Amino acid sequence: MKQLLPLVLAGLFVGPVSAADEPAPSDPFALTGTDVSDLSQFVWEKRPIIVFADSPNDPNFGQQMEYLEDLSEELAKRDVIVLTDTDPSVQSELRTQLRPRGFMLVLIGKDGGVKLRKPFPWDVRELSRTIDKMPLRQREIRDRRAAPASN
Questions:
Q1: Cα-based distances in Å from 108 to 10, 11, 94, 150
Q2: Quick one: which of 35, 36, 62 has its CA closest to 51?
Q3: Would you place residue 112 in the very low, low, confident or very high pLDDT band (cuts 50, 70, 90)?
Q4: How large is the C-alpha radius of gyration of the chain?
Q5: What is the value of pTM for the model shown?
Q6: Contacts from 53-60 at CB under 8 Å and sequence distance 24+?
Q7: Distances from the Cα of 132 to the Cα of 21, 60, 92, angstroms
Q8: What letters, b where the CB count within 10 A reaches 16 and e where it falls short, cover 3-15?
Q9: Are 32 and 83 in contact (CB under 8 A)?
C-alpha cells in the first residue's frame, strides 16, 4: 500500500497553476509545493494545508495523506487546498518561507497567516476543529446559516 501511495497521489495532482491565469482549484488535492511560487494566490479564497517530508516514502507523510484523503469532503467544505512538498533538494518557495525540518504539517489561514505547525500527522477531525474555531470560519458558518432565511 505504501508503495502505491505516491502513484495514487500523483494521479490526484494537476499541472502548475499561475495565480494570474487560473483561480485556485476546488479539489482539495490539487497541487504540489513546487507548483506554488506564492501563497498569496490563495489569500481570502482557500486555506492551504502544506505537508512537508524529506521523501514521499516517509511513514508520517503517508499517514497524513491517508488522513486527508479519507475525509477530503470535510476539507472541501472548509475551503482547504492541500499542497505537498517531498523533495528538499528543490528548495521550493514554500520550503524557503516555512523552513520545515523533516515531516511538518502547516495550516495557513485565509488571511495568509500560519495558524498551525505540527511535526507529526494530525487527523482531519482535529484540523477541522482548529479551522472551525477561526473567526473567519465562524463568520462563514453564520453567513451560511443566515443565507437560506433571507431568501
A1: 23, 24, 12, 32
A2: 62
A3: very high
A4: 15
A5: 0.77
A6: 53/84, 53/85, 53/86, 53/102, 53/103, 54/86, 54/88, 54/102, 54/103, 55/86, 56/5, 56/6, 56/9, 56/86, 57/2, 57/6, 58/86, 58/102, 58/103, 59/2, 60/103, 60/120, 60/121
A7: 30, 24, 29
A8: eebbeebeebeee
A9: yes
Cell numbers 497553476 label which residue? 17
> What's the grid cell of residue 39?
501563497
Structure confidence by residue, pLDDT tens digits, 56-95: 999 999 999 999 999 999 999 999 999 999 999 988 899 9
Which pLDDT band holds residue 34 (cuts at 50, 70, 90)? Answer: confident
Please spell the DSSP secondary structure of the chain, one letter per residue.
-TTTHHHHHHHH------TTTSPPPSSSEEEEGGG-S-GGGGTTT-EEEEEE-S-TT-HHHHHHHHHHHHTHHHHHHTTEEEEEE--TTT--HHHHHH---SSEEEEE-TTS-EEEEESS---HHHHHHHHHTSHHHHHHHHHHHHHHHH-
